[in-house]
Design brief:
Strand content: 35-45%
Helix content: 10-25%
Order of helices and strands: HHHEEHEEEEEEEE
Shape: elongated
Distance between the termini: 21 Å
Length: 199
């Protein structure tokens, strides 16, 4: 959505998959991983250093990945710009978040991994203005194992659009997915670019 898109992080997802011809390996459960080479003491220590003391949620109703909130981090904002993603996502569609034109901001995503290792997490944001797609950004978040504490991921800094033509409301369709194409969460939200924080 910025005029100076950093090319390193905003890539077309299909292009990357096609160019690399990447096929994710078959998924193994944490139990299978822990059972592999369990007699090898150094490998067991290595796995423990990577996975830590696991607190796996056994409830089948709890999803493996839970996205809890998204925050627009901007030092010059008058207050926190945070959306709760655990509540009513339909109500979130009707809410509009405000950014002052030209400010530098980052997107911070908070999430939990409950049961199994998840690989290749991605945050995808499609931005529309008056039903016309104006931007698509794909952020590679990484791979994570289950733990009790939340993880967070911060995108590289971007500059909000500026100028008379850039001001207005943008509609965003966001998705949190992974290499296996699991849709962990999809939601829609509005962002208004204004001349001042409180126009």
């Amino acid at each position: 959505m910025s005029e100076n898109e950093p090319e390193a992080h905003a890539v077309e997802e299909e292009d990357v998959d096609r160019k690399l011809n990447y096929k994710p390996p078959p998924q193994k459960s944490l139990q299978e991983i822990q059972e592999l080479d369990k007699d090898d003491e150094s490998l067991a220590k290595y796995k423990k250093s990577l996975l830590g003391d696991l607190t796996i949620v056994e409830d089948p109703a709890v999803p493996n990945v839970v996205v809890t909130r998204l925050t627009l981090v901007c030092d010059s904002a008058p207050g926190p710009i945070t959306m709760d993603l655990t509540g009513d996502l339909e109500a979130l569609k009707k809410e509009t978040f405000v950014l002052k034109e030209g400010v530098t901001y980052r997107v911070k995503i908070h999430f939990r991994v409950n049961k199994e290792i998840v690989s290749g997490l991605k945050y995808i944001q499609n931005t529309y203005r008056t039903a016309l797609k104006v931007d698509k950004a794909v952020f590679m978040v990484g791979s994570y194992g289950p733990r009790a504490e939340e993880y967070d991921y911060m995108t590289p800094a971007e500059e909000a659009p500026k100028g008379v033509l850039a001001r207005g409301t943008y509609h965003n369709k966001s998705t949190f997915t992974d290499d296996d194409k699991h849709d962990h969460l999809s939601w829609e939200w509005n962002l208004s670019i204004r001349k001042e924080w409180t126009d």
